[in-house]
Amino acid sequence: MFSPTGGLKLLTGNLGRSVIKVSAVPAGRRVIEAPARVFSAQDELLRAFNAGQLAPPEAAAGGPLAKLRDGDRVRLDADAGTLQAWVPEAEWAARDRAQLPPARKVANSHGVGREWVSAFRRNAPAAQEGAGTWP
User: Fold this and answer.
1) 68-77 exposure pattern, b = at least 16 Cβ within 10 A, e = fewer
2) Could you state, in chain order, the average pLDDT of each consecutive group of 10 residues for the chain (135 residues)?
C-alpha cells in the first residue's frame, strides 16, 4: 500500500539531518530510543557486533554525531521527523566534536570493504541532497 505522504521522510534535530524510508517500517516501529555506543576504531565495532551488540552509525567528520558520547539517549521518531540526542541544550552546545587522530583515520579507512567504496564516501553529498555521485 502506498503512503499518502510518500515513502521517505526527512529527519532533523541536534544530530543533523537524515532520510528514512518510512514506507518500509511498520507504524509501531517508527520511534526508537536507545543509548548511544561510540567507537573510534573498526575493530571495536566488530567486537561489539560479534558479541551481539549492534551499534552503527559512525560520526561524520565534523558532523553533529561527533558530539555523541557513550550512554547518551538517542531518539529517532520517523512520524514526527526528528533525530535527537536527549542531552540538555546547554551541555550539547558546549560539547566539543570528537576527532580521530590522523593515524586512526588512516587505519579506519581500510578493511570491511571501505577501500572499495572510498570514492563514493568522498564524493557523495548528504542523504537529503540525494547522495548521488554524478553532477
Assistant:
1) beeebebbbb
2) 74 86 82 84 78 60 79 89 92 87 70 61 59 53
